[in-house]
From TrEMBL:
Residues 128-251 form the GFO/IDH/MocA-like oxidoreductase domain. InterPro entries: Gfo/Idh/MocA-like_OxRdtase_N, Gfo/Idh/MocA_Oxidoreductases, GFO_IDH_MocA-like_dom, NAD(P)-bd_dom_sf. PANTHER family: BILIVERDIN REDUCTASE A. Residues 3-120 form the Gfo/Idh/MocA-like oxidoreductase N-terminal domain. Signal peptide: none annotated. It comes from Desulfobotulus pelophilus. This is Gfo/Idh/MocA family oxidoreductase. Pfam families: GFO_IDH_MocA (PF01408), GFO_IDH_MocA_C3 (PF22725).
């Protein structure tokens, strides 16, 4: 049985705690946060060990794995301390605030043979996994364009500031909503060679962007467009969508439905000419504990199993997530008028 720790018990941290508590491979759980109010509630209703100092928590509990869900600016220092103490690390996105820092922690994890994972949960959603299978099977032929988008109501007025509105804290739409879409687009078709015409648009925030728009160019001549806006109150919650155009058809998918259009019937007979639809309920493997959606439990189960098996190579490892951080840097530079 593994000993696990969670640093930061906000929305994601509490979600991780609930899922870990129900996991059959987790024997004990320690948590760390600076909020006395939150820790008093945790102490009252659970048997978790509670700390306000993550270093003390790591030293006293001899953890096997650590989950980091603090504001992004703290990621690097916590990751480094955990890795230096030979602890396997799951970190919420973005991995760090720069791809240079992400490269540093990734190299340390590789050198020590530790298991790592970043919380890009879209890769655990059944419809997006289906899209990836269809692309790998060349169902729509040669892909020549991809659109990635996400919209939601995070910042919908000019009142109130949190760490999400401070660039020094790791705030802004690019490191939050857009990071998920960039990672998903890389998962589908690989990393772009360059970006151009990037707009980092302030709508209500004063210090960070609320929307990200950009054109993406790939080594094989393929093109792409990114459109992300977290000040879109016409959406009830974050809605992510991928549209991929190929010479033999098109795939359109969100987290609920995957639609495939084919110019001709597929040779295997599984797909009809015209539109074919696949729903999330038919594409998702059941999980032992469902909180907020199967993908959140599935990503933690994947990480825990990799720790048990000592498998350092896997989906969303620090090394694999470096591509996402590099594209984020390209977008930041291009949006600021620098080299992309």
């Amino acid at each position: 049985m593994l000993k696990a720790g969670v640093v930061g018990i906000g929305k994601m941290g509490l979600s991780h705690c609930a899922i870990l508590r129900a996991h059959s491979d987790i024997g004990s759980l320690a948590v760390c946060d600076t909020s006395g109010f939150l820790l008093s509630g945790i102490k009252k209703y659970t048997d978790f060990s509670c700390y306000t100092d993550y270093k003390k928590m790591i030293k006293e509990n001899k953890l096997d794995c650590l989950f980091i869900s603090t504001p992004s600016k703290f990621h690097k220092e916590i990751i480094l301390f955990a890795l230096q103490n030979n602890i396997n690390v799951f970190c919420e996105k973005p991995l760090t605030l720069s791809h240079e820092d992400s490269e540093e922690v990734s190299e340390l994890a590789e050198a020590r043979g530790l298991v790592t994972q970043v919380g890009y949960h879209n890769k655990f959603i059944g419809t997006f996994q289906a899209v990836k299978r269809f692309l790998d099977a060349a169902l729509i032929g040669d892909v020549y364009h991809i659109n990635g988008s996400a919209y939601g109501p995070v910042v919908i007025n000019e009142e109130g500031e949190t760490w999400r509105s401070d660039p020094k804290e790791g705030g802004g739409c690019l490191l939050d909503y857009a990071a998920h879409v960039v990672d998903l687009m890389i998962y589908m078709v690989d990393m772009p060679e360059k970006v151009s015409g990037t707009i980092l648009k302030k709508v209500y925030s004063k210090k960070v962007e609320d929307a990200v728009y950009s054109n993406l160019f790939y080594a094989n001549g393929m093109t792409g467009q990114l459109s992300v806006n977290w000040s879109e109150e016409t959406y009830r919650k974050m809605t992510t969508k991928i549209e991929i155009l190929g010479k033999r058809g098109k795939i359109v998918s969100d987290a609920q439905e995957c639609q495939v259009y084919l110019k001709d019937q597929s040779p295997c007979g599984k797909f009809e000419k015209g539109w074919n639809s696949f729903w999330i309920t038919d594409q998702t493997e059941p999980v032992w504990f469902n909180l907020r959606g199967e993908e959140y439990s599935a990503q933690i189960d994947c990480f825990v199993k990799r720790v048990v098996e000592k498998n350092s190579a896997g989906v969303n490892s620090f090394k694999n997530s470096l591509k996402t951080d590099k594209v984020i840097s390209m977008l930041q530079n291009d949006g600021a008028g620098g080299k992309a």
